[in-house]
Target: Semaphorin-3G isoform X4
Amino acid sequence: MAPSAWAICCLVGGLLLRGGCPSPGPSVPRLRLSYRDLLSANRSAIFLGPRGSLDLQALYLDEYRDRLFLGGRDAIYSLRLDQAWMDPREVLWPPQPGQREACVRKGRDPLVDCANFVRVLQPHNRTHLLACGTGAFQPTCALIAVGHRGEHVLHLEPRSVESGRGRCPHEPSSPFASTFVGGELYTGLNADFLGREAMVFRSGGPRPALRSDSDQNLLHEPQFVMAARIPDNLDQDDDKVYFFFSETVPSPDGGLGRVIVSRVGRVCVNDAGGQRVLVNKWSTFLKARLLCSVPGPGGTETHFDQLEDVFLLWPNAGKNPEVYALFSTVSAVFQGYAVCVYHMADIWEVFKGPFAHQDGPQHQWGPYGGKVPFPRPGVCPSKMTAQPGRPFGSTKDYPDEVLQFARAHPLMFRPVRPRRGRPVLVKTHLAQQLRQIVVDRVEAEDGTYDVIFLGTDSGSVLKVIALQVGGSAEPEEVVLEELQVFKVPTPITEMEISVKRQTLYVGSRLGVAQLQLHQCQTYGSACAECCLARDPYCAWDGASCTRYRPGTSKRRIRRQDIRHGNPALQCLGQSQEEEAAGLVATTAVYGTEHNSTFLECLPKSPQATVRWFLQRPGDDGPDQARGAPRTKCPCSCHLRTPRPHVVEVIQRRKPTNS
Ligand SMILES: *[C@@H]1O[C@H](CO)[C@@H](O)[C@H](O)[C@H]1NC(C)=O
Ligand SMILES: *[C@@H]1O[C@H](CO)[C@@H](O)[C@H](O)[C@H]1NC(C)=O
Ligand SMILES: *[C@@H]1O[C@H](CO)[C@@H](O)[C@H](O)[C@H]1NC(C)=O
Model:
């Protein structure tokens, strides 16, 4: 830099921001990237299929085969993960002859319902997937040959096509959850033709199909969100399939109103139904309420009762997952969203606790106080239930008394409370609605962070962290990025994460996008910008903002401060040359005297404030420039460049008095 140069410095965030500048609200993202930004930076790639829209209903991420399978309208797709959407394969699977016409005759909308919307894609065995579709209002299943690992084939086995009743809903829009365990498909759905008969169903294996007991009103207009096998312990006999859903139930205060509540329900994998009672019906089904509420003044609580989505965060192989649940509230006064986290241990505790009991329809619910029969209803037959002379090897051996009790008491009395008793994240007054949640546990320099990705109804993804600061009960929320994944506003309906590939797969009705979890250089080319971003994936490596990898920090000192985002501490001495200029956490752009170049300072973060300083050669320190530097700069330095120049970060040292 020539000694006669004028330095015009643009301050991005940093100490001055902390020293009294108004801080923007927590919901303002640090970085907002448009659809174009994401594509041009190769951060995302979009697949919309050959017809410009997939009508996507199902997405299965197969990391063993390195492929992504998509279920759409009358078609299934296979994409290779190791190539940027190269080489898509398509299998057309329209309704069977006559089904479309029959659907129209039933009075269904030919465009909305009378196609085969593929809603189930589950791994069947090493070479085949099980696929089920709505089949123009006649659910249908088939096996899809996908080849061994390394092959890229996709074709439908015509001889495998069979009825999908109970395994797939009739409609593309009806809430539904499924999981494939031990060769059998578990579904939570409205199986009835008119969408009225809600049930949990198991089918597909050599055992007879098992379903919910429809006489007992076990489920009240359930909206299924997720189903998964979660082992309770190392004893496989104890394995259960958990269902997450919400229900509409009569108001607990005995009035005429109805309220929405969220549930976790479960069944034993080795449930075989009863021998005389509950024949081919679940004998181990239990459910409990999932609570997610914010304590208010005077003991009031704001409840978030409508379950939107659930993500299981498996920390390590063999450990129990943490249950991340996204809720909304449907109150007349405001719309809000909350994320609550549940430990499996707390869920198990509730299922071990008292059963809910009601003496009659008009009575209050209370804990069941009588004697509970043995084996305890809801317990899977295993070594634990075995007694001398009475092995209880199967639920068919359970005494009638046990099955009668299970039938009459499917609900637990206590609700499941979230970790720390409150949400980790609450969002109100949002412009968008939140639909999907995915979480990644990230190691950073100063600790471990759960990065939460939220899919909105406007085709964007929010990347958020919730910090537990000091002893405060209320977490601090930092919105790191807002990423407009789809060009047009469209609700995000599917989200899957590949930690191995550091990629998020984001689905909407239109199609699917692969989105990198991070792109650190986007935060800027300055240490201060990198530090202010507070992104656990990113750190300043001395030269640029790059991916932070724990354990590799020996070579270089990595600068990162997720907890406080304080560049003054982190970026001290990061640029010796600029220290002489004595500026504070600053990105500087330079212009020379009599040069009418336009200087621009566009901070990457919408949270940063910009101030301009002017440094004349020979001055002790910079003066803050008045006026708008982009149009007019004082002191005859009218500067203009065709492109914004962001050159260097400079960091002020406290003046030493000697
Ligand atoms: C994006 O990827 C394409 C193809 O691989 C490449 O040509 C282009 O330079 C990349 N752009 C950026 C900004 O990395
Ligand atoms: C998978 O199942 C299909 C259909 O039952 C069968 O044809 C195929 O051989 C099976 N593949 C393997 C590897 O067992
Ligand atoms: C004016 O300043 C710009 C930016 O520093 C520089 O690229 C350009 O060469 C300068 N022009 C003259 C005439 O010095």
Remarks:
- Residues 344-352 form the longest helix (9 residues).
- The radius of gyration is 29 Å.
- The chain has a mean pLDDT of 81.
